[in-house]
């Protein structure tokens, strides 16, 4: 699980940098200012949670606690649903894709709550 979390964190971070550059240079003249901001929000949340997932991966190397595994899955699912839905919404223009975004937000919250639970229970 630790290797998997580290790999997902690295790929998510790599893609966040690439997608951020793509938005800044390739989408600047294609998307409206509103959609460009929405896309950048996806990039921002993806990078923050890639770093959180990296921290969880390092913790998993020392302690394979269930709460850490849940945190890793929460952050991963959150990136896919939250950021992914924002990317899909802005690139396709299908506003109904925004209905997926809150599920990603809930996954992020589960990840953070699980990490807090791990910290609370650690001695």
From TrEMBL:
<keyword id="KW-0812">Transmembrane</keyword>
<feature type="transmembrane region" description="Helical">
    <location>
        <begin position="43"/>
        <end position="61"/>
    </location>
</feature>
<feature type="transmembrane region" description="Helical">
    <location>
        <begin position="100"/>
        <end position="120"/>
    </location>
</feature>
<dbReference type="Pfam" id="PF04241">
    <property type="entry name" value="DUF423"/>
</dbReference>
<keyword id="KW-1133">Transmembrane helix</keyword>
<feature type="transmembrane region" description="Helical">
    <location>
        <begin position="68"/>
        <end position="88"/>
    </location>
</feature>
<protein>
    <submittedName>
        <fullName>Uncharacterized membrane protein YgdD, TMEM256/DUF423 family</fullName>
    </submittedName>
</protein>
<keyword id="KW-0472">Membrane</keyword>
<dbReference type="InterPro" id="IPR006696">
    <property type="entry name" value="DUF423"/>
</dbReference>
<comment type="similarity">
    <text>Belongs to the UPF0382 family.</text>
</comment>
<dbReference type="GO" id="GO:0005886">
    <property type="term" value="C:plasma membrane"/>
</dbReference>
């Amino acid at each position: 699980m630790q290797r998997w979390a580290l790999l997902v964190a690295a790929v998510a971070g790599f893609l966040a940098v690439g997608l951020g550059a793509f938005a800044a240079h390739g989408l600047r003249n294609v998307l409206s200012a509103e959609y460009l901001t929405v896309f950048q929000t996806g990039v921002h949340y993806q990078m923050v949670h890639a770093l959180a997932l990296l921290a969880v991966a390092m913790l998993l190397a020392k302690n394979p606690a269930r709460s850490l595994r849940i945190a890793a899955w929460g952050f991963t699912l959150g990136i896919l649903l939250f950021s992914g839905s924002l990317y899909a919404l802005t690139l396709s223009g299908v506003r109904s894709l925004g209905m997926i975004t809150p599920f990603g937000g809930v996954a992020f919250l589960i990840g953070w709550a699980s990490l807090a639970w791990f910290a609370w229970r650690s001695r």
